[in-house]
Every structure is written in structure tokens, then in C-alpha cells.
Amino acid sequence: MDVTLRIAARYLRTRRTTGFITLLAWISVVGVTIGVAALVIVPAVMNGFETEVRDRIAGTNAHVLLLSFEDRGIVDTTAVMARLRARPDVLGISPFVYSKALVTRQGIADGIIVKGVDLRQERGVTTVARDIEPPLDSIPDAVGDSLPGIVLGVEIASRLRARPGDTVVIGTLHGAVDSPLGLVPRLRSFRVVGIFESGLFEYDSSLAYISMNAAKELFDAPGITGIQIRIADLFQAPRVAKEIVEQAGGFPFRSSDWIEQNANLFRFMKIEKVTMFLILALIVLVAALNIVSTLILLAMEKQHDVGALLAMGASRQDVVRIFLFAGLGIGTVGTVFGAGLGLLACTALARFRFIDIPSDVYFLSSLPVRVEAGDVLLVVALTFVLCLLAAGYPAWWASRRTPVESLRKA
Questions:
Q1: 141-149 CB contacts, 8 Å cutoff, 24+ apart
Q2: I need a surface site. Which of 78, 211, 226, 347 has the fewest CB within 10 A?
Q3: pTM (2 decimals)?
Q4: Would strands 149-153 and 207-211 be described as parallel, antiparallel, or unpaired?
């Protein structure tokens, strides 16, 4: 073992005359431990939330949408859908009709987005079908009384006080009739056949699903609004979207993807994670300041030893290394304890889920946890850098003393 490292370890051990300094060293260790543990746990929880939100958004939405600039939508879909199915990275496709409308029931009205889908094809693209209660093989074009079926988001159903079996009326200006009193909207009655709950308020409070045939008839649509596409790697959606438009022949086709549609949300979550990381890093910074005071007291206490070392031929670099090793020793012990405590807490949270959160607010019943190795390594590196910087001034101050000054003041 390097002699400077041995001396640094010896300085931090408990002695009758240096017991207070050792106590300060352990207080610094505890500070570093708490800071590192917090920096491991909080980003892991935020990663868990981000993953849950991303999976739900990417599940409720298709990865890529192929749309048209034309008002009539995509009329000739045979060639386009054949090209899409031929791509090896496309796992599923589903056409859809999409428009805003007004829904009413017993005097209660609400604005919604109506989406016409083929539920069988939708299963290969989104997770909507598995979120419907009661489960449906398809959305019927006509129920027993010849009314087409509709699936409402759980928040819409709650506002309308509607349950499966109830009747709602959808109003739209597509195909509206011009009269002396103005435009008369087209009204169609629908039978509620299911309620879906994605867990995301934005979708549960605005989306309703009907069959493709009912949607084309309701909105007087000659074609489809677009084609939903599920791909093998959802993070490649922007690239695949551009390639699909080029493959379809360019204009009037256009594309959109789930990352583009939710860019603001994910940007906010990223900024929030960075901000929380910087705030929690202040805990480690405070612990590093404790290291400064501890090492300054240690340098003052060991002036005689430093003078003796310099008189015996030790270099000033050796003195600097002694105090740097002392500071890094405190940081290393605190980092190891903190990282271990943080990972242990994350494991316990993921396994036992003993912290409950209101599921009606956060769409989750317990804290999600996802530890990323990169975050842990960043915490360890940041802690070592702060501890090294904290030990720098005391080490420099101790090395500036001459042997005569150190021995005289001792």
C-alpha cells in the first residue's frame, strides 16, 4: 500500500486527541451517504413514472400515423397498405376515421373526439381493446335496436352519467343541412357498449370509439382519415415516419409519430428530472463542505506530523496526496454506503410496493421504480468530483507550511 494512503487512513482513525476530528469525518460520511442515497432513489422513481407514462401513451396511440393533407382523407388505400405490410419493421396497421363531435345525454353535453376503428385490426396496433369493459370482439354497427355501438372513455362516461346499455346522441357539422335558421347539425343516436380506461386523463376524458362503417356514415367521409402503424422499435418512429411518406409517394401524404405528438410532455419530464437532480446534489455539496472543515481541522492538528514528514524528505506533493486521500476516503465510504442504501431502497420499493399513491390522480397505485446504471454512475462520479474539490484547499494549505513553521507551532 502507498505510504501516503496509509498515513491518510491513520489520520482518520479514532485517537484520544483526534476523536473530535474523527467524529466530524463520520458526520461527513453520513452527509455523503444521505445525499447519494437520495440521488439514486429520486431519479429511479422519476424514471419509473416516465416509463409508465411512455408505455401508456405508446400503447394508446399508434407509433406512426400516415395521414393526408386532403380534406377527403385517404381514399385509395389498397396500394398504400400493401406497401406498409411489406416493410419488415411494421408489426401492424389499422385504418381509422377521426373527427371532433358533440355528445349529449339527458341534457348533458360534452365535446369529444370520435374515432372509427376496426377493433380486430386495432388490437395489432394499440392496447385500447384490452382496456375496454366489458371485453368486445368488435364494435357493432348495430345493436339490438339497430343503433350503432359506441365505447366511451371512463371520464366522458362519468360526466354523462352513462353506462353500457344507455343511449347517447352524437352531433357533428359534417353533412350538416343548411336551413333558414342556419346549419342544422347531423345527429345520430348510439348505444353505449363499453367503457375504456387507459389510465391517462387526456385520453379517458376526450376519446370515444365507434366502428369504421358508423364513422364514415356519421362524418360523411369518402375515405379514411389515416392509417395507424405499429413498428418494432418505437424509438425509431420519427425516422420510420419519414420513410413511410417517401414510400407512399410524398404529397399529399404526411406523417406524425407518438414522440412528436407528446414532445412537450417528455421535454417537461426531462427538465423536471434534471432540476431535481441538481437540487438533490446540494445535499452532497453540503457534505463536501463538511469535508473541508474536517480536513482543515485535521491539517491544523497534524502540523507537527506534516513538519516531521517534510523534514524527513517528503515532498509537498506527498502532503497534498495525504489530505486528498483523506477526503476521498470519506467520499468513498459515503458513496458506497449511499449507493448501497439507495439501491436497497429501490429494490424494496419495486418488490414490496409499500408506498401507496392515489390511483385516481396518478393512474398508478404504487411508486414505480426503474434504476438506470447511467444515473448511478453519474451520481458516483459527481460525488467523487465534489469530494476531491473539497479536499483540494485543505491539502494545498497543509502543503504550503514549511518544516520549521510546522515544528515551531507544534
A1: 141/211, 141/213, 141/214, 143/191, 143/193, 145/191, 147/189, 147/190, 147/191, 148/188, 148/190, 148/191, 148/210, 148/211, 148/214, 149/190, 149/191, 149/192, 149/193, 149/194, 149/210, 149/211, 149/214
A2: 78
A3: 0.80
A4: antiparallel
- φ, ψ of residue 72 to 5 degrees: the values are -80, -10
Nearest Cα neighbor of 163 from 171, 154, 176 is 154
Q: Which amino acid is at 36?
A: V
For residue 136, CA distances in Å to 64, 118, 150, 166 come to 25, 11, 11, 17
- Alpha carbon distance 392, 324 (integer Å): 7
| Cβ count within 10 A of residue 64 | 32
pLDDT tens figures, 183-222: 778 899 999 999 999 888 889 999 999 999 999 999 998 8
Residue type, 291: I
What stretches of 6-153 adopt beta strand conformation (E)?
A: 64-68, 90-105, 108-117, 132-133, 149-153
- Cα–Cα distance, 328 to 60 (Å, whole number): 49
Instruction: State the cell numbers at 142.
Output: 348495430
Q: Which residue has the cell 405499429?
A: 230
Q: Which residues pair with 67 in a beta bridge?
A: 226, 254
pLDDT digits (tens, 9 = 90+) for 119-145: 999 999 999 999 999 999 999 998 877
Helices (H), 353-372: 359-362
Containing 182, the helix (H) or strand (E) segment is: strand 182-196
As a whole number of angstroms, the distance between CA 246 and CA 248 comes to 5
